[in-house]
Amino acid sequence: MALVHCLPPELLVDIVLILHDDIPEKKENGFSATWIRATWVCRRWREAAVQNRRLWTKLSTRRYVLYPEAIHAFLGRAPDTARVQVSVDAVARLGEDESRSGRI
Known about the structure:
Layout: H1 9-22, H2 34-38, H3 43-51, E1 58-60, H4 61-64, H5 68-77, E2 85-87, H6 98-101
Parallel strand pairs: 1-2
Helix pairs in contact: 1-3
């Protein structure tokens, strides 16, 4: 068995949280999926991340504006008793398809 499979779930979540908080949001479409990709490493990493409510307390529309289904999944995973930090990027990009703006 590879040593990575011996890591405790708390450490896996810490790795994903570091990626979540430290990766700059510089993608063309406003979405940085680096931390989400880390949850796809294997089933164990995914379960640890999805079950840990700390990861789901910061929501940025800059990240999710093109993916409304992601907003629903995100809020569904956020703890009921925690505050969810919401960041709204109200500056529209030039040439943005207006049909998307109604989906927000």
